[in-house]
Structures are given as C-alpha cells and as structure tokens.
Write a structure and sequence with these properties.
Chain lengths: ~325, ~325
Amino acid sequence: MPELRKDPVASRWVIISTERGRRPSDFGTEPERERAGFCPFCPGNESKTPPEVLAYRANGGGPNSSGWQLRVVPNKFPALQIEGELGRQGDGMYDKMNGVGAHEVIIETPEHGETLAGMSAQRVEDVLWAFHDRVLDLKKDQRFRYILIFKNSGRAAGASLDHPHSQLIATPIIPKRVREELDGAKEYFNYKERCVFCDIVRQELNQGVRVINENDDFVAIAPFASRFPFETWILPKTHEPFFEDAQKHEYVNLAKLLRDLCLRMEKVLINPPYNLIIHSSPLRETDGRYYHWHIELMPKLTQVAGFEWGSGFYINPTPPEDAAKYLRDAKV
Amino acid sequence: MPELRKDPVASRWVIISTERGRRPSDFGTEPERERAGFCPFCPGNESKTPPEVLAYRANGGGPNSSGWQLRVVPNKFPALQIEGELGRQGDGMYDKMNGVGAHEVIIETPEHGETLAGMSAQRVEDVLWAFHDRVLDLKKDQRFRYILIFKNSGRAAGASLDHPHSQLIATPIIPKRVREELDGAKEYFNYKERCVFCDIVRQELNQGVRVINENDDFVAIAPFASRFPFETWILPKTHEPFFEDAQKHEYVNLAKLLRDLCLRMEKVLINPPYNLIIHSSPLRETDGRYYHWHIELMPKLTQVAGFEWGSGFYINPTPPEDAAKYLRDAKV
C-alpha cells in the first residue's frame, strides 16, 4: 500500500509509492513494459490492461473487446490504491496515512500515433465527456476530496507510454497547489466581491495582447505571470466552478478551442512535449462563487532548476505577450 | 530590464527575463556561448566574464588575473539586474515591478572537470566561505530581502555550463517557497514553543533509519516526506537561523559532510545531475527562534509531470528509508 506523508515544515504531502521502480539502478532506464516495443493501449491488447471502467464503442461490442474509440482503465501501476481506509496516524512528530485514491488512464484513441491536434473535434469532445463521466462516478466516493485530471504528452513531459492518453488521480486531501489557488481566489473574492478569474477574462479580452484564440464559450491566453515559455490557460468566459458541470455546447466549443490550440503549439514549437491539467473546485464544495475552473497547458521547453526549486519563483525567458503573438499568428 | 510579475490567483512571482533566449526557435538548442566548446570559467578566460566581485588567490595576483582558486563574478546573463529602483505598479488588476536584484556566479575551482566530491574538504570549505562573504556584502543593500544560494550540476539539472559553479540570486521579495517554510515553522513554534527543524534533528538521530551521515555539527538525512528519490537535507545539529552566521568549525564540518555526501551520491547513483539549495532566514529577520537554516540536495532522477504541476503533490518511488540505507552503506 502506498503511503501519504506530510512534510512537517511546508505541509506538503508526498506519495511514497511502492508499485514503481525504486532501486538506484532503476533510474535512467525504461520500465520493463516499454522495452519490447509493445503497446498495452493499442486495440487487440485489451487484456494487458486492468478491466475497463468506461469505454465508448460506436458500433457496440462487449467490454474489453476491440472496436472502441476511447477506453478508461485503472492504472496498472497506480500512485494510489482504491481499496482501504485512510488510517491517519502519527510517527513521532510526523503525519501519515494510507495511500488511498483512484488512478485511472483515459486512452484517448485507438490510433497509436495520433495527437489531440490530429484528432477531429468530435473525438476531442469524447475525451472531455470521458473526463466528465469518470468524475461524476468517482465523486460518489466520500473518501475523495479532489480529482485531478492531467495529461503528459512526450517523454520529456513525463509520459511513460507514447500512445495518446490522459490520467486522473482522485485524492483524499485537497492538493496544495489547488488549495493555494482556492485561498487566493477566496481572498480576492472577499476583497472585491468578484471572481478573480472572471476579472482575468475581462481584462484579457479587453487588452487583447495575451489572447491566443477564443470562441463563444472559451478564451485561451498566455497568462500575465506565465511561469513557462508558451504557458497557456483556457478559461470559460462565464463563471463556472466545476468542470463536470459544463453544458453540452461548452464541451463542443472547448474541444474545438483545445484542438486549435494544440495545432498552433505543434506548428510554432514543433511538436513540443507538454503537460496539461484541469483545475476545478473541490468535490462537494458548496460555495461556487469564488473559483472558476480552467485548463493550464505547459509546453516543456526549459529545465526547472535550483533557483525555481529553492524559491518557487520562475524565470520565464519568453514574455507572454510575445508567446501569444506567435501562437495567434500561426497559420492553422 | 527584467520584469517581476505576480500571479493574481496564486500570489506567485515570476521573472520575465529580457536577457535570455525567447523565440520559439531558441528552445532545444544550446546557447551560442556554449557551442564552440569554449569555457568562460576556465583560467586564462577571466576577461570573458564580468569583472570579479570576489576571488581567493593563495599566491596573490591582481583582480581578474589567473592563479585563483575560486572566483565570484556577476552573471553575464542575469535573471535580475543590479541597477534601479523597484518601481512597484499595477497593470489593471495585475501587479508588477522592475526586476531588480543581484545574480552572481561562484566559480568553485579552476579545474573544468572537477566535482565537489573530487575536491579536497579544504576547497569545499572555500566555496562555503565565498557564499558567506558574498551574503555579508549583499545584505548591506536595503533593497534585498532574500539571497538564495543554489547549485545546478549537470545539464539535466539545468546547468548551462559544465565548469563547476554555484549561483546566488538576491531578490527584493521573500520567495514563495521560503515564505511557506517560514510560515510553517512559525506555526509549529507557536504551537510547540520549539523549532520544527530541531525536532526533526532529534527524531532522526533517535530513529536512525533516515540518517545518511553525520559529524559533530551536522547531520544528513533522507527527509520523512522526500519529494524526490534520494532527496537529502543537511541540517545543523544546533539551532541557527542564518547560514552566514555559522562558526569556523561549522564550515569545516559542513565541508567534510557535504563532500562525503557527494561521494556517496556519485557512487550509488553514478554521477547524478542534481540541484542543491541553501534555505536560510530572510535578511534582517529579527526573530531567530523558529527557523533553522539547512541545505536541500535533490538528485534529478525522475521527471516532474502533470500531476505534480497540477497538485503540488509529489510521487516518490523510493522510500526515504531505502534511499538512506543505500547512501549510508556506500563504500567511500
């Protein structure tokens, strides 16, 4: 069972994993399952993953058979495990609990070499619906307080398999980075009586210099204080605390915007590795006034080094106004 | 002039640099100054760096001449610039200020291919004295509130030059990561009336399972909630808020312990890239009871990916008790 441990100084939680490589000689080499050039996410290999928890099959077919457009399976090497109770306890001055949670993989397409930019908008929309469906199911579990949806694309961005996929991890505590945003947004709301993200959307649409693309429901911007070159946020234009409560037309428009953004990234940055995350309100949060869900997309172009680790400051060599212009002007 | 910008949600500061590569085509290629195999930090090339602000020369010799054991120079491509006032101002809802600060490079040795593990303890001690001397000088500047000392070793850890060097950046604000530790330590102190780091030292020496090495003044441990495999902290055994206020015998013993630790890392992890940072109290902090300076050393063995960026959680595949045992048992 993995263990959740809390740093007594910074109150940061860490997952000490027991299902992954751990000896010194394990680092720097590919995991066993990758070496043979075999892909467990490709059609025909359904038996090599844990049994699916969701799949979209346009033409029917039984569970774990081929013929799917999208499949969701538990992660075979989960960071957190679904069974068990939290078991909060101390170890002298330290705090720990069992590594309880859910860790699932959304296999976005049967095509091994596809990207979000290469898929049709309809297929990207299916990926969003899969996120939606899994969150609705998992939020019934009262042990979970947050579900983080994320995508690592490319080895340099931490992907261990090339086949296009996203992941979600449900956690029994609200993650620190989310907590910081919640606290900051709440403080802003208490002071201004307005949502900070709504204000960002208004100022960005008004100034225009950091806007990359937009449609009726969403806008993509290079954020004012971008940590990384070409960092991009996608925000709903109207206030909405939960990703999973979006309307049908919003998923349609988000799929279009996200696909277009990925096309621009591929064009300008030549298929960059990237991380994508969705930040939504904590499960069962009752005050929906101050937080506004959004996507953060971070191409992996620079190294995070000692200064960033030690300070939490970031050094960004590309002003977001320049990044937005490059992406806005890309011919797609 | 670089610009400091604040994220309005997470209150995170970012340095938007104007002195570094910025166009899409600049990423993924080595900076110009590296391509020719020329090292500006090697003896004989003193004129290729900005004029030195400190040097140790056992046999005399004028400034910026050869014959040095250690040299400190301003960074030629500084993240922050030394001249100017802060100029705090708004841009609509956003906050920014001029990127004022100091950014210096400590060239640790004239030998291009040396490492901390390969240097004598006396020479490692010189590096610590250089940190000490520069902090004492820079803290006179009332614009600065913090000085972060750090070292990136190896390209994968963000080093852009191979020649052994450390860096320091003086900032006009207390960095977020430091602020988090200060706040956490203060909260612990208010509750317990003891320093949290002193308690960590006591519990670790008592339990022994996460101790790597120690001497009269310092102990190196794999922290209970290590974020990264083989993450290591070095803590003074007695309470001390400021790195720069250590006594002579402490620098002697720190140099010995640090060198020994680097030897163990090289042996067990086969010369890993790593980041090292020193966390000390903010400049001119008057309450010295709650914070305890220390070193954090993080070998770069895994990728930080979407889950970490989105949550602030870390997934560590090597339990710190195992990491400590590997390093403790290494024959050095």
